[in-house]
Amino acid sequence: MTGGMRPRRPGRDGRPVAPGLQRAAGYTWRLLVLAVAVYLLLLVVGRLVLPVGAVFLALVITSVLRPLADLLGRRLPRSLAVAGAVLGALLLVAGLLALIGASVADEWDTLGSEFRGGVGRIERWLEGAPFHVRPETATTLQNKLGSYLSQHRATLINTAVSQAGRVVEVVTGGVLALFCAVFFIHSGDRMWGWLLRQLPPGARRGWDRGGRTAWHTFAGYTRGIVIVAASNAVLVGIALALLRVPLVLPLVVLEFFATLVPLIGSPIAMVIAAVVALAARGPVTAVIVLGLIVVIGQIEGHLLHPVVMSWAVRIHPVAVALSVIAGGVLAGVIGAVVALPLVSVIWAVVSELRAGDGGAAA
User: Which of 72, 74, 124, 138 sits between 20 and 30 A of 90, alpha carbons compared?
Assistant: First the structure.
């Protein structure tokens, strides 16, 4: 037997199995195990939305505010540094919400007249080429819509009241997330060290490597997606301001949070902006806003993501798309948000442990 040839492993029938088939089988069962793990985790997310969502949000807050707390901790006691970082973030969010409310209040009267005029422009546009919708058709649709709302007013009110419990759940989850984030920022390292001490001594090193890799990947992904979302929001804000579309600030905030859902979030936010532009500025402006979906998508896909995210997450776009779709199917919006960082963390941990095992074996 030559020295460079690997012996073929015999199969059950005594015939040798090709090395390529052996490698393919190895990768196949690893991928199957990874897929089952992701599936089970997403099922848990779907069943325990409130606590899982709160812990996930707490980890996001920790990854964003931990560097600021560490920076403040160089000159202040740790408790004061954490309090300063958290209170500063809360004041920033509260100020942003107040600014949005003031912006909407200032533009409310103007928006009413613009939207009424926009409806008339849309009707005249539909009556012309190439649609040639008859005027009585639009009037009939408006009358039907008005009668439907009047007939089902009680049902709509009851539905809105029944959804008030959702608001309580969201507030509860936010408070729980903030509570957990304070402890994660203040003493996350000590909490992780205590958890490692509960494991058998022989397993601590591997778990420590895997946990630190998981946190590094998750924190890098979170900071990267926040930078991408902020960049998208700034681009959208500039474009909408130049086009004189109303409600620029609320639409910018919507774009920022929608971008946190990869692939589908930003286009949905831009479609909403196009609807506002259609009602307030007419079809031409709305078409331009829709064109921004393509432009901003190209900037995000070919500039922002490769530059910002490549140092933290290295996932193929096909895997990104499949992860987001699978997460949305299994656990709704929360699953779509959690799926990509979850897959990224699992892949990074597997790669790290496999590289460490290879180095140890060598």
Answer: 74
* b/e map 284-315, b = 16+ CB within 10 Å: ebbebbbebbeebeeebeeebbeebbeebbee
241/238 Cα distance (integer angstroms): 5
Q: At what angle do helices 78-127 and 135-151 cross, to 10 degrees?
A: 130
Domain ranges across the chain: 42-116+174-356
Q: What is the DSSP letter of 11?
A: -
Global pTM reads: 0.70
Q: What is the pLDDT along the chain (362 residues), one digit of tens a residue?
A: 444 455 555 555 556 667 777 777 777 887 788 778 777 876 776 677 788 788 889 999 999 999 999 999 999 999 999 999 999 999 998 998 888 888 777 766 666 666 666 666 666 666 666 666 666 666 676 666 667 656 666 666 666 666 666 777 888 889 999 999 999 999 999 999 999 999 888 888 888 998 998 998 898 888 888 888 888 889 888 988 898 888 888 888 888 888 887 777 888 888 888 888 877 777 788 888 888 888 887 777 667 766 666 555 666 666 777 777 777 777 677 777 777 788 888 888 888 877 765 544 43
Nearest to 238 by CA among 305, 295, 308, 301: 295
Q: Which two tokens stand for residue 331?
A: 């656990």
Cα–Cα distance between 217 and 212 in angstroms, integer? 9
